[in-house]
Amino acid sequence: xxxxxxxxxAILAYLLITLVLxxxxxxxxxxxxxxxxxSGRSVSWWLAGTSMVATTFAADTPLAVTxxxxxxxxxxxxxxxxxxxxxxxxxxxxxxLWRRSGLITDVQxxxxxxxxxxxxxxxxxxxxxxxxLMNCLILGWVTKAMVNIISTAMGVSDAKALAIxxxxxxxxxxxxxxxxxxxxxxxxxxFQFVLKMAIVISVAWYGIHAVGGMPQLLAAxxxxxxxxxxxxxxxxxxxxDFSRGFTSEALWTLPVITFVVxxxxxxxxxxxxxxxxxxxxxxxxRIFSAKDERNGLLSVLWFNLAHYALRPWPWILTALVxxxxxxxxxxxxxxxxxxxxxxxxxxxxxxxLAGFMAAFMSPVATQ
Length: 367
Fold this sequence. Notes:
globular; mainly alpha; 73% helix; Sodium/glucose cotransporter
């Protein structure tokens, strides 16, 4: 697709605002190590919590949710909704303890809790495993999603899209993060989150409008289920179809056995960024920055409320639109960008790309 002057203006305006925020907080973050890494421990709950929500809203997230809904229905989101118990444990059991610890990074906890050479080894292992290997994995899947977004929206090859990510967006992110420290990250996260939510709500609205409205969308989904016969379940159901048995792999349903494993095992046995059992990583980093224990607790409570209950619905609605408008996709994740680029006004393309740049840069800044 061809980018107009207005599109480029919107993209440049986003980049300029982001850079200005990093420059603005440069002096404040440079006053001390605590100011740089934990914002002087003076952050309100709403800013710390919104930063948590923003950094877990990556460029790949709407695409991943679209793929889940396209194949397993809305219930497919239990793949990550199942981490809610871990989040609630962090809120009510661990958030106050993290803030009370007085740490600057969660890596320090290893030597605070243990001692001697084993503690040093654990700290080094975490630095390599989480800081290097896992971060590279996370950056890889976020970058792959952004490559798909740029190539679809701008009509360039994957190689050119990858070059834009690696040689421009990543270095640009590194500049504003190194300038502003955690203060800069928190406020750019807030700006980026507002922009991202405005974009995904707009995409969902225009997508629903394209099929004639919510009643028509639900009717079209019901018609597709009827056409698929008894092998299809209700795509809009929040829970799997328990009447089909434990191992049924019907269209638009999550197998019951998978649902049970998610709820019984995955939330406590699986490490996932932003959903570590008991908190940790960038969740703990933002708890450390809170004014006090109460603000630390409220920040994680707001994060879990927004992360699980509020933020996903524009993505889910857009995924349902993709099922109706673009059936039979070999790569269901691309359904989101098809709706975003074909059903929204062309005048919004620049703002759309700016929003996805924000979704890419926020997790990159955190890593």
